[in-house]
Amino acid sequence: MAQEDKFGIGVVGAGMAAKPHALALQALSDRIAVRGVWRRDAVALKAFCAEYGFPAAESFEAMLADPAIRAILILTPPNAREPLVAAAAAAGKHVLMEKPVERTTQAAERIVEICETAGVTLGIIFQHRFRAASKALEEKVRSCELGRLFAAHLVVPWWRPQEGYYNKPGRGTFAQDGGGVLITQAIHTLDLMLSLTGLVKAVTALAATTGFHSMETEDFVAGGLEFANGAVGALMATTANFPGGAETLTLNFEKASATLAGGNLDLRWFDGRHEQVGEASNSGGGADPMAFPFDWHMAQIADFVDALETGRQPVSTGRSALAVHRLIDALIASSREGERISL
């Protein structure tokens, strides 16, 4: 495909979270053209572009003025997103953005409304939905062959060291991140859970900061869940579980129990059948938060482009992401107020 016929995209932000996106965009170069990357740090921008073979943009405004750029991929910390999204939407550019949508649900709602009012598509990166195992379970849930959901059990037993992670400026603060383990790490598995279970109607939770970390926000959350469909559940999420392990989501259905552990699905039917899907892979649960493959990002970016080219909504939208933001708010509120919180 000629360069001018490819889907043009611009990238804003080239920090730690950019690596899997860059590798994914390289792998998709037969159909997607990265027409510019912009970051305030000129030295870091030059190094990033040299490493991945992408052109540096003169400015964010220059990318917005490029008619060949149809979408902007925003990879900045959440505290820098709203003005970028507003400018991109005003320029008629679609937006694909790293999770979370913003630090607070109120700000996230504003971003969603900005894009909807401008008539541009907003996609949110939740790459765990695009694992082969996750997609296989989603297909079985949608077909109703598993029967009714009765219970769910979610565990995110991750580890992040104080030195080298939380000691970096802004990490674990409300001003930059908006929260701790829920909105920064467990949000991926929480979003995946909601995509398979449906909405939560009430929670009872405990959130705390363990002695492992000196930080403003929580590094441990445990809670009970009541789903709108009548199922019940429990969760535990932490970055204080050394050396860190794969997140696990177990769903107990009427006819089978399904466990997603990292990138693997283990499906055990009550009639004796046993199915497995996926392969062993790291998930970023240990000290290196980027220790995972880029295939899932590649699949999500491809889905976003497919959606725009066919006129459908992408799998993960800004509107759908608000559900996980509201769940996180409820969990934190329950711990703070010491009572059951209805969503």
Automatic annotation (TrEMBL):
It comes from the Bacteria. Pfam families: GFO_IDH_MocA, GFO_IDH_MocA_C3. InterPro entries: Gfo/Idh/MocA-like_OxRdtase_N, Gfo/Idh/MocA_Oxidoreductase, GFO_IDH_MocA-like_dom, NAD(P)-bd_dom_sf. One of its GO terms (molecular function) is nucleotide binding. Residues 7-124 form the Gfo/Idh/MocA-like oxidoreductase N-terminal domain. Residues 136-258 form the GFO/IDH/MocA-like oxidoreductase domain. This is Oxidoreductase.
